[in-house]
Amino acid sequence: MPPSKDLHAFKKVLSASKNIIVVAGAGLSAASGIPTFRGSGGMWRKYDAMSLATPESFAENPSLVWQFYHYRRESALKASPNAAHVALSSFTIPKVRERIAPGSDFTLITQNVDGLSPRSNEQVFAQAGVTVPDTPPYLIEMHGRLFDIKCTQCDHVEFDTSSPICEALAGTEALVEKKELDANIPIENLPRCRKCGSLARPGVVWFGEVPHDMPVIDKLVEKADLCLVIGTSSAVYPAAGYAAEVADNGGTVAVFNFERTPGDEDVDFLFLGGCEEWLPKALS
Ligand code: BJW
Ligand code: ZN
């Protein structure tokens, strides 16, 4: 049977679900003006992922990789959460969720590193005047954060939203836009660890590295009876495998995406279009 696009039927399933997870990707932030990775307009069309998003590429050319991430940091700082982030933040608040899916737990597992989900949470929770309990975790940034600066030697991590992150990178975002990355910034002028002075790197998870909070995520996926897959091409593992695992365990899967993605023919619900349009309707 093809996936249903019946929002009313989805809301009925949502209201009866107890362990709800969202697996989100770059499409969640697309309406905030942050480019996705794959597909038309995606960053990996313009840049080679393997020469920017691997530990090996950083070891070979930290200047080039830092320019790319400085550009990404500056874009994220200028962006604001969109209606999809806000709908998810609102759904995170227990007293809001109680009206929609009584007695349920909820966790947003995002692959995004742009900080828009935590910023949206801060704003929405403050506006509602609530503190949300930490158990279960309500937000997991499994691919790290653009604003974490991580030491290559002592592993010290510091959250730093300075703009620019260091003087040598100031203004180089224009070069990235023109695809004229300049690989010649001396290593001593790149971001350094505040603790030991060694070269620091962006605190994101590159290909070949283990995503954050894996044991916690594994338990959440195992328990989930509803999985919403939002704005991800489902091309990168382990996140790409979560929906199938929930389905194998008898749970329901709903995909929200602009376009068709691998495996979506087997899901229960498929809502094609912008998640910033769908989520405010689906989660209220
Ligand atoms: C909209 C929209 C709108 C647009 N509304 N929708 C086979 C099995 C298992 C693993 C592997 C395997 N083969 C290879 C691997 C390893 C590798 C991998 O998956 N490679 C693939 C290429 C095959 N994975 C890893 O290396 C991971 N680590 C790992 O596996 O460790 C081993 C281990 C795991 C667990 C336990 C123990 C050990 C690490 C992966 C790290 C990925 N890093 C990046 C860069 C992060 C830093 C940065 O941001 O620069 O993460 S790559 C990039 O892709 C980024 C993203 O988080 C990730 C996913 O992309 P996403 O979010 O799906 O974006 P897009 O652009 O692909 O899709 C956007 C979607 O939105 C599209 O579908 C649009 O249609 C849609 N859209 N507008 C709704 N308005
Ligand atoms: Zn250090």
TrEMBL record:
Domain remarks in the entry? Answer: In contrast to class I sirtuins, class III sirtuins have only weak deacetylase activity. Difference in substrate specificity is probably due to a larger hydrophobic pocket with 2 residues (Tyr-69 and Arg-72) that bind to malonylated and succinylated substrates and define the specificity.
Sorted alphabetically, the keyword list is: Membrane, Metal-binding, Mitochondrion, NAD, Transferase, Transmembrane, Transmembrane helix, Zinc
Q: Which cofactor does it need?
A: Zn(2+)
Entry binding sites for substrate: 69, 72
Residue ranges annotated as transmembrane are 20-37
- What InterPro entries does this protein's entry cite? DHS-like_NAD/FAD-binding_dom, NAD-dep_sirtuin_deacylases, Sirtuin, Sirtuin_cat_small_dom_sf, Sirtuin_class_III, Ssirtuin_cat_dom
Where Zn(2+) binds, per the record, is at: 151, 154, 193, 196
Residues of the active site are 143
Recorded source organism is: Coprinopsis marcescibilis
Q: Write down a Pfam family by its short name.
A: SIR2
Q: Name one GO cellular component term.
A: nucleus
Q: Which PANTHER family does this entry report, sorted A to Z?
A: NAD-DEPENDENT PROTEIN DEACYLASE SIRTUIN-5, MITOCHONDRIAL-RELATED (PTHR11085:SF10)
Where in the cell does this protein reside?
Mitochondrion
Name of the protein in question: NAD-dependent protein deacylase
Q: Name one GO molecular function term.
A: zinc ion binding
Every Deacetylase sirtuin-type domain range: 1-284
Task: Return the SUPFAM superfamilies for the record.
Answer: DHS-like NAD/FAD-binding domain
